[in-house]
DNA sequence: ATTAGCACTCACACTCATAGAGTGCTAACA
DNA sequence: TGTTAGCACTCTATGAGTGTGAGTGCTAAT
């Protein structure tokens, strides 16, 4: 078990390293007013902390650096959240200032502001599009043989896709179909769409529309929408600002991971509630073994949730980021819920 | 005036440097079968070429590197376009393989494939959205006080924006308005939209709709759409692959420029026709002084144009990129024109 | 006009010495 | 017994000195 003094020294060491990015020596520490001990005493304690695996040396005669275990202990037990500075709160509030009516727009801005406030990379995941429900379907003919299918969802998201109309189909039939679809599918979630499409509409189609099979399968294809476009980044390039990242190869790997959308679920576990911190190799992706990721979820109404992630070096300003994310998560939940409910 | 042999040596020097990224020495060159001269001879010629400003030395006793003037002469006079390898053509064709019906989708894929083929960064600019013409307008109510305005354009692009409905407005009026708008504005380009909005519809509104003023200005706001979302990138990270870029600061500046949409017009001059090469400081942006940019335009139908840019180091494989862009520009023009015309 | 020969230059890699920051250990101290 | 001063030790970072090699420019011979 760690003594009070060891805890204090661990905390101050981590804090100092987070701030300076330089290995921390006993002399430096003894100068701080929180630690009224001689360098020698501190040295002894640090040696113990190293023995217990909380600190590491970069070489025999260097100062110490927090180990993964050290960071973990720090965030689990030594993190004393401190209220956000006024300025930060003001900036966060500015996200909602302009009365933007679009969920996505708000999330985009959040990503930007968050990355500016932290100097790390922010990734925001909007609510799962598949949980949106259909407000209105329509089909707009473009040329002789193409048309665009449009689905408007309950919170104003618009999905659209151009498709090819089967040769020589009656425009009146398409119109009929759209009407039927709107009648039957309003309020259905995008996720259930292709299921309900068959259950509810196929029989009606048979009665009212010629060549229903062809038309049906065409439309079916058109409404199977991609649903990966609700990821928003802020400060992708902030990685380049961190002195921790100097190895071009590693930077490339890291940026690659973030660029490739398929890796996003690994960074931002979709289901999880509340705030999570993953440090270094606690991340599943090997490209992120030198990073820490802090995630938090937010809620829109009772049904929909989104998440926020901050990606930075292990030497991340945990205290600040945690409070920022806590606050933002709350604000986002509040404002976005308000938005979908109408004022 | 340069002699035949000087031209040959300049060409081979540039080619070699483009390939190896290493300063080129007289010994190396004399080994090539194209240059059956002794190192000494080549040295003399190179000294002349340096005197004339086509080559440079990195230090007194180093090999030579093309100067900006050297590259310029090379692309202007020494570029012997060579037919694309089959494999490349095949890859370019693969862009259109899947019968994608959406202009944007095709452009997105082009950006990706192009960046893969070149290992440089590709920027593709879609046709100016403002030149699209209105196919259909609609307004879908979401909550008590919000609705989403949707504009479908002639080539299947869908613009949408959520807006706030003025307090206590009659839904029937909105419906009326949309009908009027569709009657009057179909075929109008987005650019002229707000102009024609007033000219053509304001008087009609006065006759048919209560509180036309409020409704009109609300809708007017909603249709002033942003039009910057038709820029697509491929291989943003390819910059990190080039050995020419090792200075983290410069990489940051460069990536910053590309990330910021406001700088795009500087990279991709919108009006220009045909193929252009800008080398080093010929670029207006100082962050790109170590880059070369090759741009080319393509046409969709008679009205609309887009452009393609490749951003790479000055030591770019001009020959290859020029032929690639030439070909792609042609293919894109052909296929996209076909698409908006219907098959 | 071309080329072989040669002296010269400079970057790069290597070694070596030194300074400085930090440690661990021991012995003295309160 | 916990704390601290002192000291020897270790390792990095820095800079000076050196040798090597690739390359050049010039001159004289072909």
Automatic annotation (TrEMBL), chains A, B:
Where do the Heat-inducible transcription repressor HrcA C-terminal domain residues begin and end? 104-322
Tell me which domain of life the UniProt entry assigns to the organism this sequence originates from: Bacteria
Record keywords: Transcription included?
yes
Gene3D superfamilies, A to Z: 3.30.450.40, Heat-inducible transcription repressor hrca homolog, domain 3 (3.30.390.60), Winged helix-like DNA-binding domain superfamily/Winged helix DNA-binding domain (1.10.10.10)
Enumerate the UniProt keywords alphabetically.
Repressor, Stress response, Transcription, Transcription regulation
As for what it does, the entry says: Negative regulator of class I heat shock genes (grpE-dnaK-dnaJ and groELS operons). Prevents heat-shock induction of these operons.
The family database entries (HAMAP family) matched by this protein are listed as: HrcA
The UniProt similarity line reads: Belongs to the HrcA family.
The protein's name:
Heat-inducible transcription repressor HrcA
């Amino acid at each position: 078990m760690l003594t009070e003094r060891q805890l204090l020294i661990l905390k101050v060491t981590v804090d100092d390293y987070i701030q300076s990015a330089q290995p921390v020596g006993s002399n430096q520490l003894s100068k701080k007013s929180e630690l009224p001990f001689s360098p020698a005493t501190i040295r002894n304690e640090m040696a113990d902390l190293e023995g217990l695996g909380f600190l590491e040396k970069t070489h025999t005669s260097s100062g110490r650096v927090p180990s993964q275990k050290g960071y973990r202990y720090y965030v689990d037990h030594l993190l004393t959240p401190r209220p956000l500075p006024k300025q930060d709160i003001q900036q966060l509030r500015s996200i909602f200032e302009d009365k933007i009516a679009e969920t996505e727009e708000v999330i985009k801005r959040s990503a930007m502001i968050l990355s500016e406030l932290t100097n790390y990379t922010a990734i925001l995941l909007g609510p799962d599009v598949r949980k949106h429900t259909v407000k209105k379907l329509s089909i707009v003919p473009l040329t002789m043989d193409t048309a665009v299918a449009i689905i408007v969802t309950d919170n104003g998201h618009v999905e659209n896709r151009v498709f090819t109309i089967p040769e020589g189909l009656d425009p009146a039939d398409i119109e009929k179909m759209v009407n039927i679809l709107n009648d039957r599918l309003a309020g259905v979630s995008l996720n259930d769409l292709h299921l309900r499409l068959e259950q509810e509409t196929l029989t009606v189609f048979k009665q009212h529309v010629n060549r229903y099979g062809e038309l049906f399968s065409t439309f079916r294809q058109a409404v199977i929408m991609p649903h990966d476009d609700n990821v928003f980044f802020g400060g992708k390039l902030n990685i380049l600002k961190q002195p921790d990242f100097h190895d071009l190869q590693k930077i490339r790997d890291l940026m690659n991971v973030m660029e490739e959308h398929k890796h996003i679920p690994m960074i931002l576990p979709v289901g999880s509630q509340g705030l999570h911190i993953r440090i270094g190799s606690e991340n599943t992706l090997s490209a992120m073994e030198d990073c820490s990721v802090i995630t938090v979820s937010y809620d829109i109404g009772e049904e929909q949730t989104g998440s926020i992630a901050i990606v930075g070096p292990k030497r991340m300003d945990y205290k600040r980021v945690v409070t920022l994310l806590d606050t933002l998560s709350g604000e986002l939940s509040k404002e976005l819920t308000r938005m979908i409910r109408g004022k």
